[in-house]
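User: structure tokens for this one?
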Amino acid sequence: MILSLILFQFGCVKEQPLAAADYLLITDEELATLNGPSSWETVEKKERYSKDKNLFYFTNMFFEDDEFYYGKTCIDKSGKVYLEKISKDPVQVTRKEFDYGDTDCMAFNGTELLTTANRFRELVICRYDKNLDLIEEHSLKWIQEQNVEGFRCWQILPFNEGWIFLISIHPSGTDSFYNENHLLFLDSEFQVQSDYDLGFYDGAYSSFVLLEDLVYLNRYAQKDPNSFETMYPNIIDVFSLESHAIVNSYTLPYTTNGSFVQNAPDGVLVLERTSAQTDRHIPIVLLWPETGEVVPVVIDYEYPYASGPNPFISVDQDRIYFTYRAVIYSYCLTDRTLGTVNLEELGFSDYLLFLKCSTS
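Assistant:
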């Protein structure tokens, strides 16, 4: 029975394929391909293997090329995390266990996957090929050179032939609230070529996004100078790759703790806000940097932040999909309208991932 659902090859778990279609849907119970959106129909579906139920994915650790999607899962019931690739035609999931516990960072440059793993005062960079095979692991010596008590790698993005790392550190012997935020530019061999101190010392940036020669960074947490308690700021800073300095800032009417969505349409910043918000009905904020226009995506619904992970966000041209467990929202950038994708009539519920997967 189990062997009819999955194949074991060279340490991988490879599930039986599904016929390709316009959209891919993963729920707690099923994996399905669908055609739409004018009218929704199921092309093929199958029950998920029992231990895979409830495994969900993270928007900024999910990537694609012409043939495959790549990502990592949440921690399963046995405490394991998996790296996955999903072929588009046919749709087939291939999985390998991640041997380093869990990771906060994952990046893809079109040929290689990068993840990080934290050891005691050591940041280990793990490089994988597109078959999810480990090529090498590399310890970032820069961490040891800083004499730190703590650190966190928040995000990695490919840049030219190398990578950009967003890292915050707490140097030894400093005030408990003191925090340095750095952009590290690494070459393909993970040697630091440039190190820019971003000049933000009483908080942390949680993510960044590149638009041409500008780096947009969202402030995640900051010390209140009066109470010394953690507060959630509402500022996006702009770092210039040309002048190597912060050249602009945007003050939003909403707090900015969360993460930028990396596959957003050109010219738009999509900020996914975490659930630690008082205004929980505004989980997504859109920013057009050229004009400074800020548009909140308002969701009049209690469930999304009452429980469950943040939504899985995917983009199809001018449409952004927000996948919550109980509902899939569809936001059109052209006419600024919010709708829903109704798949209940097809018998689906408890959504985890929904995206356009046609290879045409």
